[in-house]
Design a protein that fits this description.
elongated; mainly alpha; two-stranded antiparallel ribbon; 4 helices; about 150 residues
Length: about 150
């Protein structure tokens, strides 16, 4: 049996690498299309999506490591809907703090306009993050931190 894939699913660093890669590839495509849908040029939209993805990857690895460390210490195991909501809100909220000023500068818009842009993306990505995490866990199994003892 492969050391990174057990009967309970994909684990460890490989789990995080597969997770981040799949999540961000889909996110780059979706972000580019969303930026273009709100009137930004294709080139600027694609480039911003890649830059945002790079920031998101760094944040994703950091946030998920901290989240799983916290999760491992919880007495209740598993990933309830409430825990998934906390995960999605924490991830997206932290990312928004970095992206709003970046989008304002990148697209040459005010912080308010960038906040509105981010709000639209946030609504999309809150749902996307929740559904992606659910699907990923269904396909690859729960991480060790969320499995019953």
């Amino acid at each position: 049996m492969n050391a990174t894939r057990t009967a309970s699913g994909l684990q460890g660093p490989w789990r995080r690498l597969v997770f981040v890669s799949l999540y961000e590839l889909i996110a780059i495509l979706a972000s580019s299309l969303l930026f273009m849908a709100i009137g930004q040029g294709a080139g600027a939209s694609g480039a911003m999506a890649v830059v945002a993805s790079t920031l998101a990857i760094v944040w994703n690895v950091t946030f998920n490591h901290l989240f799983e460390k916290w999760e491992a210490g919880q007495s209740v195991k598993g990933r309830s809907a409430a825990r998934r909501v906390v995960h999605a809100v924490g991830f997206e909220g932290g990312l928004a703090l970095a992206l709003i000023p970046l989008m304002a500068w990148w697209f040459d818009v005010s912080l308010w306009e960038a906040t509105l842009m981010e709000a639209g993306l946030l609504l999309f990505f809150l749902v996307y993050t929740y559904l992606f995490n659910w699907a990923f866990d269904r396909i690859f199994g729960l991480p060790a931190s969320a499995q019953p003892a």
